[in-house]
Amino acid sequence: MSAEQVREETDSATIEELLELNGQRVAVYSLLARLYRREVNQEILDVLRGTRYPLSTGSEDADQGYQLIARYLSNVYPGCLDDLARDYARTFIGEGMDAFSAAYPYESVHTSEKRLLMQDARDEVLAILRSEGMEKNKDFHETEDHISTELEFMKVLAQRCSKALEEGDDERAASLVRTQRNFLEDHLLAWTPMFTEAMRKFAQTDFYQGLSRLTDGFLAADSEFLREALPEDGVPSEPALQTAEVTDESE
Amino acid sequence: MSEYANNLPTTDKVFTPMGPSEIPSPIADILVPSPYAEDDPARPVDDLINAMQPQREYLMAFLKACEQPLSMQGVKDLYDQIWEYHPIVYTAYDLCVLLEEAGAIERVTADGQPYSMTGVEPIIVTDEKTGATYYQANEPADMYWVLLEPGKTILDDNDPLSRAQGYFEADEKLQPLFKRLLTLCKEERDIEELNDAINFDPLAFDPRIYAPFLVDRMERAEAIEWKGTWKITEVGLQALELLAGVEDHYDPAEQAANKENFIKETFESDEPEETVVFEGELVDQAAIKAASKLADSE
After folding, report:
1. Interface list for A 52-91 with B (CB within 8 A)
2. Contact between residue B182 and residue B164 where contact means Cβ atoms under 8 Å apart
3. Are the CB atoms for B223 and B239 separated by under 8 Å?
4. Does A73 sit within 8 Å of B117, measured CB to CB?
5. What's the CA angle centered on A16, arms A10 and A18, to 5 degrees?
6. Can you give the pTM of this predicted structure?
7. pLDDT digits (tens, 9 = 90+) for B267-292
8. Neighbouring C-beta atoms of residue A72, cutoff 10 Å
9. Are the C-beta atoms of A84 and A69 separated by less than 8 Å?
């Protein structure tokens, strides 16, 4: 086997690893977006009970989140969906009017001085969504800066990234990684730490306590991954760099 | 200066502390001994059931059923039976939680131990290919509802016959109508039949009451029940015995005539319409009757 063949095999394995990793990111973003979008129903509960949760991810928060969620799912009982729905309402909707009565899942609330909806953050997110050719589904009656929308946006970008990698369009993949990194740092990570802290204050079930930890842990780990994949200077690092090199050689 | 000083109240007069006997009476009238001062574990359950009269049948049935450990499915089956004739917006689990919070019932495991929401730990599995370890949801423990002492007290203290007796005594004048209602309900009756039998009786005019008023009281006393029609219960038969000395000369034909007369007098009178003064406002009786006619015709 020639050196070139060895290198091609190594690069191919790296792309596969990247695709697999990206697939996992898509799955987690998808799960988080769903859990924040509305209450847990029987269908998603069954899916969650059939899911395996990593014991050790390297993130203390994520590990704790997975453990709490897995423990809750090991103790489900008839009526737990009612209790989860109550906890969802208690945690994300609340009953007061002082802007501090729940963990409000909107970026505007956490980044505006008066904790109001539809502030600059929402306009920015709307502009970013449109720049990527997306609009909010009319059936989703929340604002564009709702956490579910932002998480789903990350999911879609990750999916597009996988597609670009599969098609060998590394420039597009790098651009998508950059967009994800910027969006994650400028938006999601700018407010979710405050949001998840509020969640821990209001949530009474292990499920939503775990979800808050998982969100923290996963977003922090994802930020790290995106930084490593594409450093500040825009030059893809390992393994993204290797992928780009393969393309250059082929050209 | 001395005159001014003399006109000021002296310290003695103004600041003498009041003794208990000097406390103005309105305060003593307002503040009464609190029933909550006594440590009665059954009181929250009693309060719950009184506050949820429309759901009383469910709550009492659940308490009774939970004398033996009852699964949530068992509760749901019971709920469905009652729901068929008394639909409510609460779920079976909602009602169980309310009873649980009031201290009437609790969750237990199959072996009667207190049920813990975090009692079962997830399973740890290892992926054979990668060697990575994962949490996997474990099989949850079965959960049952079981009656606690405060709930048992409420069940034991439940005396529907006394409640019926209380309603009879509170509205002594209406006893013949109560008797008529219970007697009629020995056979299955719909509310229209009961309306015709009671609404136009002279006894129902001062104060004005309608059949549903009596039906509601007798239902609360568990003397009649709704199963698509109104029907007397065992308690109702005993309540009827309490009214054995009461005379009621019920004649359907007479009531039908009363109804006819009432309608005639109300809607077909040739006399000039009177204007009734009601709490300082002039009420146009003719307009009210016209509106009633319109509503009836619609």
Report:
1. 52-56, 66-67, 70-79, 82-83
2. no
3. yes
4. no
5. 105
6. 0.78
7. 876 665 555 555 555 555 666 666 66
8. 23
9. no
Task: From residue A112, give the alpha-carbon distance in Å to each of A108, A232, B244, B275.
Answer: 6, 28, 75, 62
What letters, b where the CB count within 10 A reaches 16 and e where it falls short, cover A154-163?
Answer: bbbbbbbbbe
**Cβ neighbour number for residue A192 with a 10 Å cutoff:** 23
Distances (CA, A) of A19 to A127, A167, A240, B221: 28, 12, 11, 70
Tens digits of per-residue pLDDT, B69-125?
999 999 999 999 999 999 999 999 999 999 999 999 999 999 999 999 888 999 999
Tell me chain B's radius of gyration from C-alpha atoms.
31
Identify the helix (H) or strand (E) that includes residue A1. none
- Give residue ranges of B with CB < 8 Å to any A CB: 71-73, 76, 91, 93-94, 96-97, 107, 115-125, 132-141, 143
Integer CA distances (angstroms), B101 to B73, B98, B200, in order? 20, 5, 46
Q: Which residues of A touch B73 (CB under 8 A)?
A: 78
Alpha-carbon torsion (B165, B194, B204, B247), positive or negative: negative
Locus of tokens 């009621």: B248
Chain centre to alpha carbon of residue A33? 7
